[in-house]
Here is the input.
Amino acid sequence: MKLFTFLVGVSALLIAGSAAFFSVFGLSKLFAGEALAVIIMAGSLEFGKLVAASFLYRYWSKISRWLKIYMTVGVITLVGITSAGIFGFLSNAYQGATIDFEKQTATLFYKEDRLNQLQEDKVYLKDELEQSVNALPDNYPTAKRQLREEYNPKVLEINTEILDIKQDISDLKVGLVQTGVDVGPAIYLARTFNTDIDSVVKFFIFILIFVFDPLAVMLVVAFNQALVLRENESRPSYGKTKGKRWWQLYGEKKPLLPKIKISKKLKKEESSEKLPMGRGGVKTDIEDS
Here is the structure.
């Protein structure tokens, strides 16, 4: 029992401490202008939340109704603030892991669009060259050669740029494979459920914050309950012992008090009978001379 109570307390401490750390860190990023002040404020609120939850459990039947309402609303509100801080922390971590991936993806899309445009320009130049050459009579070979000489540098320039862009695209795809390792599970789930990565990550973040801090508060309450139960079990019991009343410990089926009174009365009568009779029929301790 003691070991289990200790495990409950350690679990409550670890989960509540983790939730507080992530929440404080997330809130400090949200209000980066006064990070130290936010850390102090959020840390004190986290500690006060756990103390308030313990106080409510231990003294629920002894405090006023308005204090119950205020402290309950305060604890629930602080749970929401902690969850918001955890959401900010996890969102920041996700953005940090995917910022390079998103940059490379955007660059890849740009390079692919540029490649398509260059290929269209190349086809357009070739068509224009063919039309210009065909428009000249066959007895103008010099003019046709000059036209080809004018268009060839343009086509070569486009071909060179196309080769460079293809090389860039290949490098970007390799980089995306290496960068995508950090967000590989999210990418796989997004493809599985036919949605985007951001929606998958938001879904998992909401699941985490739904169970994180509420579980910490419930474990703190459970730890207090375990301590109270230990105190009650270790406290000596005078009215009952293992489900029996105190007179049943002596093998009696009824309270001993009436029997004790009867026994005292009988002893008193016996003692009065043993005293000698005096004058007037009164028993005295000294005989009349």
In short: The longest strand covers residues 240-241. Residues 65-135 form the longest helix (71 residues).
